[in-house]
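FIELD: query
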Amino acid sequence: MRICSWNGIEMITDPIELRACIVSVVTTVIFFVLFLKPHKFILIGIVALYYSLEIAFHDTNDMLCIPMYIIGVSTFSIRGFFRNHRKLKISLFILIYLIICISPIYLGFNVFVSSLLSKIVFSFLFLVAIFFIIENNGNKIRYDSQTECILNIADYEKLNSRDAEMLDLLLQKMAYKEIAAFENLKEGTVKNRMSIIFSILGTGDKVGFLNRYGKYKIIYEKAEAPKEN
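FIELD: result
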């Protein structure tokens, strides 16, 4: 590690060591944010994609870049990143994968071919494993789809019938502005209330809610009080 002193302050001058130090600090900050706001776990995807590129360019023999890339893609997918402009975003991630695969090309033909084949085989094994996981979950989903999924907002003490109505409108792909007009409220009021609703439901934000309850039917039905004998 190259260190110089300026006015009694030690500074790192080696570019590689400096980059590693910056990455470590940024990663620490990101995981601290995740600790405070777990629903922001898309940050894990950003870190994973960065590390996949970092590994691919600086350690051609380390195949960890492939699972890191897959973690990044999976995180973005779970957060609904590919819902809009799907083709453009998928093309972008394919481009990132190709960059990871061809990154060792400057090290010579033999090293490049060896690394490329290893990454392709590693990717294939991961895709096979993912296929079996998806197929297994698909069977469970097909079984569960025979019964309707219902979210009864009345089960949450701090929520009301208007909250259920707004959530139902949200599932109909209405924007906050449209929901506000429908409910005769200000857009800011709707956004603030929605934030509270998402917090109570434990989904964190709009994307988390849509991912968890996107196929649910929203109702507001209070349980009948038990009859006295």
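FIELD: remark
Residues 41-144 form one domain.
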